[in-house]
Amino acid sequence: xxxxxxxxxxxxxxxxxxxxxxxxxxxxxxxxxxxxxxxxxxxxxxxxxxxxxxxxxxxxxxxxxxxxxxxxxxxxxxxxxxxxxxxxxxxxxxxxxxxxxxxxxxxxxxxxxxxxxxxxxxxxxxxxxxxxxxxxxxxxxxxxxxxxxxxxxxxxxxxxxxxxxxxxxxxxxxxxxxxxxxxxxxxxxxxxxxxxxxxxxxxxxxxxxxxxxxxxxxxxxxxxxxxxxxxxxxxxxxxxxxxxxxxxxxxxxxxxxxxxxxxxxxxxxxx
Length: 271
Prior knowledge:
Blueprint: H1 11-37, H2 40-48, H3 57-68, E1 83-85, H4 91-107, H5 109-120, H6 126-129, H7 132-164, E2 174-176, H8 177-194, H9 197-206, H10 212-217, H11 219-233, H12 238-270
Parallel strand pairs: 1-2
Helix pairs in contact: 1-4, 1-5, 4-8, 5-7, 7-8, 9-12, 11-12
Protein name: Sec-independent protein translocase protein TatC
Function: Part of the twin-arginine translocation (Tat) system that transports large folded proteins containing a characteristic twin-arginine motif in their signal peptide across membranes.
Membrane topology: Multi-pass membrane protein
């Protein structure tokens, strides 16, 4: 993967390049965060807090799916019995800033990838450097698919589960704003990072750290982990768990296929 005269840049030169990568990426995030400020009402009311209402798209789709499968209203979500409250003096201000920064990071992700590519490209072959557009497009596409999966699947399922779960009728659900926003950030970023698995496997296989045999060997463990995650973030019904688990299993299978292709190409190059 790497073939470059290491004497061209000193260690301090690399640190300087890394510093400017972080500076430019931070500026990009701040700019996009500032842009989201002008649509903050829509961002919070319709997007971030959307899954707290029964009229959210996913809940309606689940109800339609329930009817199509002949389950009547078994997985229909008609009410979410909880309230979200702020209990800290500066709670809403802090949440406002951090969620705008999160939105800024998501919107500027393709640019950040481009900066990362520029940083690592000197260590690549000329043929590999020509794949910059493919790398940025594919990585960005997977990232945004992960964000959408986290937002439209993981968050609604998590909200529905915690809203309907109760240890006693005496206990009422009153969630803090900070805990809800933390769940939103974790679900979105966690899903986005997981969807980058094929890209990570590509580079790990390229470096010789992972092989398709290794991934296939531990496939059953991966399935168990994915099913556990799906069971945790969804209500206790098979349909919801399946909807969450299937895309994650497909991502893992795609990663194995990518690893096979890269591994075969490496073997051909070494012949």
